[in-house]
Fold this protein.
Amino acid sequence: MKINVGSADRIVRILAGVGLLSLLFLLEGNARWFGLIGIVPLATAAMRSCPLYSLLGMSTCPAKKS
């Protein structure tokens, strides 16, 4: 997979993922399971590759200088 997630984007994804996962502990009932959506931004931050960015041809990585 091609790296298309930059440093700033990676930090935002980690914070969003942890925030969403915290819903598992903060909410009650069935609504708490929406916190599992936080796994997606954490996984894309860990892999440094976002499938949606690939489909759209986007990248937040800085351009490599040759």
Notes: The CA atoms of residues 21 and 36 lie 6 Å apart. The mean pLDDT is 92. Residues 7-21 form the longest helix (15 residues). The radius of gyration is 14 Å.
